[in-house]
Amino acid sequence: MSGALRGVVAMDGPSGTGKTTVARTLASRLGAGYLDTGAMYRLVTLAVLRAGIDPTDAAAVAGHAGTVELDVGTDPARPAALLAGAELAAEIRTEEVNRAVSPVSAVPEVRELLVARQREIIERVLAATGGIVVEGRDIGTVVAPDAGLKIYLTASAEVRAERRGAQDAAAGRASAPDDTRASVERRDRLDSTRAASPLRPAEDAVPVDTSELNIDQVIIALSELACRRGLLNGCAAEATR
Is residue 235 situated within a structural domain? Predict the structure, then answer.
């Protein structure tokens, strides 16, 4: 399967499903841009923590969010995460940020601010390269509801906890398996029950369970879906029946 991506692939799902690896790899394979919307929420969360603001104080979080200078890279090979010009890709993945990102991202003003930024980035990348893979938790439902292909990645809680633990170990962060699973399940619960843009699949999203698939199998499946939707140059869309 070959051909450059044209249009938007929206990729949603809970943590530990492989969204970041899948989205970056797919974007690289298809010559597209890449946007990690979760990194933007994590940057705001880190800024809130550094300012000494309680992440559960919605009013204070909302007031501070508008002052945060953040930027994210759209090159899948180098997805930078910048706060006031400083690269903080490692700092936004700490357990402290993991615990605080759900309440911060649940603040409606934060979501409104970042969704507007995300849409601007998507339009800019589409104008420059023609295609982008966007990952997050509300891409198909809120950020890019008109995306040509919407994917909802899933995996069992056990597999997702194992993946999170492996990521932490690779980054030099110690984590007990039980604590990791509890963290994953807590994030699921908070993200799926928040009032503003809860985590849920779009009605027309294609579910993909990655529990027993390796990265190459997932990429092949998604590339074939993009081809059938007519999103790859040289690939005709399947006729609808």
Answer: no
Residue 241 lies in a domain: no
* Binding residue numbers: 13-21
Residues in binding site for ATP: 13-21
Q: In this structure, are residues 45 and 105 in contact, taking their beta carbons and an 8 Å threshold?
A: yes
SS3 63: helix
**DSSP-derived secondary structure letter, 81:** E
Which range marks the domain in which residue 83 is found? 7-228
Indicate the pTM of the whole model: 0.85
Q: Are 31 and 4 in contact (CB under 8 A)?
A: yes
Q: Is residue 137 part of a domain?
A: yes
State both tokens at 222. Answer: 């998604």
Per-residue pLDDT tens over the stretch 124-180: 999 999 999 999 999 999 999 999 999 999 888 777 777 666 666 666 666 666 666
In a domain, 234, yes or no: no
